[in-house]
Amino acid sequence: MKSIVLAGLRIQENEAEWEQKLSEAAMLCKACGMEVKARVSQKGQKTHPRTLIGSGKVAELKQISVAEQAEGVVFINELSGIQLRNLSQELALSVIDRSALILEIFEQRARTRQARLQVEAARLAYQLPRLVLGQIHADQQQGGGVRNRGAGETRLERSRRTIEKQIRDLHAQLKQLQLQQSVQSRKRRRSGLKQVCLIGYSNAGKSSLMNALLTFRSISPTKQVDAADQLFATLDSATRRIKLAGRAEILLSDTVGFVRDLPDFLLDAFESTLQEIQEADLLLEVIDASDPQWEFQHEVVMQTLRRLQVLQLDRLLVFNKADRVEQWPRKDGILISCQTGQGLEELIQELLLRLDLTSLAKPEIGDEFLSELSYNEDERGE
């Protein structure tokens, strides 16, 4: 789908919160290569079991979709299998929900074998409950007797078993990759280098910060990571060796960004990737200081860390995009700009203190020669 209508049912959100959800969903669509032609919302007390929104709103949605020549509809809300089936039939268009949209983005971004396996496992986990509901609805539509329903249930169970086996096989492959990562992790630990992990809301500037640190004290060309002004630009985790000062070096890992209401099956699928967070000596939470919703995004990050059971880890707030804000009164973090380099020296000094590396920060004879040979060695990632 290249052009879509964005739709949703507003139940508990106030007007401002709903607009935020719509705007973020539109950004997700853009990240997926979809153009939002129109937005259709309905305010209600509860969801309609057949179509999420009422029949009148479905008719309006169809009319708008035809007028805008949209190829599909994206719902902000989660849709059940029955709702997906009914909406697709009544609108005569492709219909997906927010989780399926995120999966589509992840599938486009996946580069490594691990990321592709994780996305496939998540896709099947998303599909499984919707397959159940969709098949039940299809059997009821056939209206057959006990014999037909029994045959339908048999086909349903067969489909469920097939998907469940595929999920188990994918998890087994991911487990093997996780074991390989554990070996790499032990090697990094033996190197004695501190491990720092970049976390934060999607599109806050994590990859940009890694690239800025890679080049800040660069003597030789470095391997940078992909960075783009869009949600989920980073999917595959990458680790780089970063020189801070003198002989003080760290291993810095970039990870997938968080968003509001991230489905459990997506978080579970990326457990091995998020292992980088659990093993870190320090978490750098990158926050987009120019975003009016940064406090809400910070809370989403905190909730995700709570789900990952890593709230106890040492964490440093890094407020990015200082070049886009006029004043910044906060004193509980470091204000930086990856574009201009503002605040990077202050950030490095804070890292040296937090990681107890100040004794290694003083330049020694031969450092420049050694740096030419080994500076910013690529530890991991494609």
Describe the structure.
It is globular and about 70 Å long. It is built from twelve helices and eleven strands. Helix 1 links the parallel strand 1 and strand 2. It has three domains: 104 residues, GTPase HflX, N-terminal domain (Rossmann fold, 3-Layer(aba) Sandwich), CATH 3.40.50; 62 residues; 189 residues, 3-Layer(aba) Sandwich (Rossmann fold), CATH 3.40.50. The relative contact order is 0.10. With 382 residues, it is of the alpha/beta class. The strands form two sheets. The protein has a seven-stranded mixed sheet with strand order 10-9-8-5-7-6-11, sandwiched between helices. The C terminus is likely disordered. The longest helix has 46 residues. Belongs to the TRAFAC class OBG-HflX-like GTPase superfamily. HflX GTPase family. It is found in: Cytoplasm. It holds the Pfam family GTP-bdg_N.
Gist?
Helix content is about 50%, strand content about 15%.
Please trace the helix and strand order, writing H or E for each element: EHEHEHEHHHEHEEHHEHEEHHE
The CATH H-level superfamily of the largest domain is: P-loop containing nucleotide triphosphate hydrolases
How many domain modules?
Answer: 3
User: CATH first level of the largest domain: which class?
Assistant: Alpha Beta
Output the radius of gyration: 24 Å
Largest sheet: 7 strands, mixed
Intertermini distance: 29 Å
Helix content: 40-55%
Total number of helical segments?
A: 12
Shape: globular
Question: Care to count the β-strands?
Answer: 11
Percent in strands: 15-25%
Which class of secondary structure composition applies to the elements?
alpha/beta
